[in-house]
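Saturday, quiet lab. Running sequence design on the structure tokens for the scaffold JK sent over.
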């Protein structure tokens, strides 16, 4: 599902109000609630809303586990795209293109988070900031017209 050159993900629409949350081990429950509320307000509904909660949780958990124990999550909508971005100040990711590119063996202790995020989103961008990493996941919003024309 991930495609870095997807024309559906480019938009000239101004961003709607965003959600910005500081992440730590005590903020995950509140983060999930806030992401659900904002994404619903942006027009995202199940099952994509549930997918977004998995994406946000995986990115936040990676930030806490690998990015120094803290981070920041930002969520916003531009046109028909909802963006979920997590930034941290950790050491970065060694092989950006390989990160989450394929499933890991069942015997592995971890390594499934970015793979799962790639499966649930339309686009994933990972940038090393030296220090830190920024991961931005994009989901296309299924827009349903408010009123359909009479046949």
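Result came back. Writing it out in full:
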């Amino acid at each position: 599902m991930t495609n870095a050159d997807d024309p559906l993900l480019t938009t000239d629409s101004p961003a709607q109000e965003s959600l910005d949350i500081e992440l730590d081990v005590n903020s995950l429950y509140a983060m999930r609630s806030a992401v659900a509320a904002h994404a619903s307000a942006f027009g995202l509904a199940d099952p994509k809303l549930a997918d977004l909660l998995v994406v946000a949780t995986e990115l936040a958990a990676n930030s806490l586990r690998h990015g120094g124990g803290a981070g920041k999550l930002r969520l916003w909508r531009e046109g028909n795209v909802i963006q979920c971005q997590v930034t941290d100040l950790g050491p970065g990711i060694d092989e950006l293109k390989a990160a989450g590119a394929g499933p890991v063996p069942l015997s592995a202790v971890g390594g499934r988070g970015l793979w799962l995020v790639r499966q649930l989103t339309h686009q994933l961008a990972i940038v090393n900031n030296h220090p830190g990493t920024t991961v931005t996941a994009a989901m296309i919003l299924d827009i349903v017209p408010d009123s359909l024309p009479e046949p």
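Notes for JK: The beta strands are 19-23, 71-78, 81-88, 123-128, 133-140. Residues 100 and 138 are 15 Å apart (CA to CA). Ask whether to fix the surface positions before the next round.
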